[in-house]
Amino acid sequence: MKPAALRKICLGFPGAREELPFGEDINVYKVVGKVFALGPLKAEPLRISLKCEPDLAVRLRAEHPAIIPGYHLNKRHWNTVELDGSLTDDFVRELIEDSYDLVVAGLPKREQEKLNWVALSRE
Q1: How much is the pLDDT for 79?
Q2: What are the strands of the beta sheet with 34-39, ordered from one edge?
Q3: Is the dihedral of CA 102, 108, 109, 113 positive or negative?
Q4: What residues have CB less than 8 Å from 49, skipping those under 6 apart?
Q5: Non-local CB neighbours of 93 within 8 Å, separated by 6+ positions
Q6: pLDDT tens-digit profile of 62-111?
Q7: How far apart are CA 57 and CA 88, in angstroms?
Q8: What are phi and psi of 27, to 5 degrees?
Q9: Do the beta carbons of residue 10 and residue 16 sit within 8 Å?
Q10: Of 34, 22, 67, 76, which is closest to residue 49 (Cα–Cα)?
Q11: Which of the four, 68, 84, 92, 102, has the lowest number of CB atoms within 10 Å?
Q12: pTM of the entire predicted model
């Protein structure tokens, strides 16, 4: 996956915004002010950190060498995904969507409604 494709996925969710609060090297993707993805889009190999359910985070790390505990983040709730070609683009897209959904699920109902958000489990 190329940086432009990764950026497009992250910005494709309702209400998603990109910020550079840590300087031009770290792209941060937020929804209603809450981070759901971040990473250096200029890094090689490309990598992105994503929020994840704790039990799933551990399982994903065990199953995929390209997924490690969140770099400089709470390792219980965050994974860093190295986009080295070992994971399919569809799988990476699902991981990003799961991260977005986790963050939106924690928002007040009013904010969820503004985003027209429906959790995957309710679709």
Answers
A1: 96
A2: 16-19, 27-31, 34-39, 47-51, 78-82, 67-69
A3: negative
A4: 37, 38, 39, 70, 71, 73, 78, 79, 80, 81
A5: 9
A6: 999 999 998 888 888 999 999 999 999 999 999 999 999 999 999 999 99
A7: 18
A8: -85, 130
A9: yes
A10: 67
A11: 84
A12: 0.91
3-state secondary structure of 35: strand
The Cα 15–Cα 33 span in angstroms is 10
Contacts of 12 (CB under 8 A, 6+ apart): none
With beta carbons less than 8 A apart as the criterion, state whether 55 and 24 touch.
no
The kind and range of the H/E element at 97 are helix 89-105
Tokens standing for residue 35: 């981070």
> Contact, 102 vs 85, CB < 8 A?
no
Residue 96 burial (10 A CB sphere; 0-12, 13-18, 19+)? buried
